[in-house]
Amino acid sequence: MLTIRNLQKQYVVRGGLLRTKQGVVHAVNDLHLHVRHGETLGLVGESGCGKSTLARLILGLETPTSGEIILKNIPLEQWQGQHLRRTVQMIFQDPYSSLNPRWTVGSIVREPLDILGRHPLEQRRKKTREMLSRVGLGQDDMARYPHEFSGGQRQRVAIARALAPEPELVVCDEPVSALDVSIRAQVLNLLHSLQKDMGLTYLFISHDLSVISHLCDRVAVMYLGSVVELAPRQSFFKTPRHPYSAALLTAVPIPDPSIPPQEMPLTGELPSPLSPPQGCPFHPRCPQAMDICSRQKPTFREIQPGHHVACWLYEATTQDKRNMS
Ligand code: SF4
Ligand code: MG
């Protein structure tokens, strides 16, 4: 469905009192990822690691500095706007700010269909009613306004709007983190059943590993703009390979008694993407850092079938490491 290679996105920012100091933010830095048709790929990482920038790049809302995004075997830059909008949709974190408060729910859900303009009005209205019923809202809700709904219901409206054009890939950016804990499971279950019914592929962005562990087939871990580990869910939660993944996992209670509790080894703050560390971006915080880690960046490679990691612990034999040192 989606292949990303060597992706870079940099921004020039100005700082200082007179805003004369220039800096380059490496929001996405040499990122590799592939999303398979029909799967849910969970993308996890701390805030500020570049997850949302990656989402905007995939949606074509921003242009990469370099690298490739290939959607269904076609480079993203060759996609026409309308086809791209029909194929990739996004569900945002905040159902309060992502819905226009002046519009009825019916017009909100119909809007993407109106923009695409492929069908006559009556058909677009029919599709709108169908989508609202799929997300568990009724006919009467069409004429109501967003403020008349609860947070969970608003997110259902946002989901109906995103899925109305029948996209193939849906980027879900923290879709339940703004919701009450009590209704998160309902919305997650809804996303799961819609995926089955509509044959959707999800790229599911979250900082919440317990959500990821429930919903995702594979997990990608992002750190300072790069994917540092990509693995099937089971293999990831049983034996995370990257020291950063291991640290994330120990920080979150995962309801699986087979995973022994460990000490939380992660220390220090996420470094600024304005001056990412040389070598492995995780080395200033890594409990297993070696000499080479501060000098050379490890490559992202497959260390066992389907399990990819960027870390010197798996890069080469000890002898090779000595030779490189
Ligand atoms: Fe730690 Fe080195 Fe692996 Fe980076 S490459 S995660 S610093 S061991
Ligand atoms: Mg974000």
How would you summarize the topology of this molecule?
Blueprint: E1 2-15, E2 21-35, E3 40-44, H1 51-58, E4 66-71, E5 74-75, H2 81-87, E6 88-91, H3 105-116, H4 121-134, H5 151-163, E7 169-173, H6 181-198, E8 201-206, H7 209-215, E9 218-223, E10 226-232, H8 233-238, H9 243-251, E11 301-304, E12 307-309, H10 318-324
Parallel strand pairs: 3-8, 3-9, 6-7, 7-8
Antiparallel strand pairs: 1-2, 1-4, 4-5, 9-10, 10-12, 11-12
Bound molecules: iron/sulfur cluster and magnesium ion.
The beta-strand count equals 12
Q: Helix and strand string, N-terminal first?
A: EEEHEEHEHHHEHEHEEHHEEH
Ligands present? iron/sulfur cluster, magnesium ion
CATH evolutionary superfamily: P-loop containing nucleotide triphosphate hydrolases
Keywords: ATP-binding, Nucleotide-binding, Transport
Organism: Paucidesulfovibrio gracilis DSM 16080
GO molecular function: ATP binding; ATP hydrolysis activity; hydrolase activity, acting on carbon-nitrogen (but not peptide) bonds, in cyclic amides
Family: Belongs to the ABC transporter superfamily.
